[in-house]
Design a protein that fits this description.
Number of strands: 0
Order of helices and strands: HHHHHHHHH
Largest sheet: none
Shape: elongated
Strand content: under 5%
Number of domains: 2
Structural class: mainly alpha
Amino acid sequence: MFSLDELFAQLRGASVIRIIHERIDEARRHFKTGLMEIKSHRDFNQQTALFIQYLYSDGLLAPRRISLRAAMAEGLDLLERHYEGNGGMQGYDAAYLDAVDSQGRGFDFVLSQLAEGIRDREIFRYTNGQFSVLIDPSDWNTHKRIVEEIVEKYVAFLPDDICFGSPDRFINYYRDLIEVILSSDQTIEQVRNSPKISLGN
């Protein structure tokens, strides 16, 4: 019988996601650059590629070995898509400027953002795979039950048009509803586990 709680527990895969976090964080801490500072695009590209090679071979649940050229391309793509630099700048150029600024964020900050981007992608891949295994994309009745149970359980947090509208209107968005709830739960858990916050005191 369908259970929303069991579905969420499987999708969260708390132990798997924790391991993804821990392995990538540990690889990030152990990586050592071969340079005291980044002085050129060549330095930046090479050290970024070496970092990605190391993270892929030592930090992923399913280790991958890639060439230096492939790692450079991967780094460029990750930085272009995910990097947030000083003053609202984004992408590869912002990352390079931060890396060469020894008085600012520095290359270490760039590597941390790369690690976060890889970690988020690995968690997405895991969750996406779980969706495919746990929910038949053609099972309309199950999609409808998911929407109905989400509305019933999370009525206090959802907009009125979802809570008081027909569930049929949102069946095609059942996956979006699940992902919103999962990401909200993850944010709450991060806040709860923050060393700066002591709940209940």
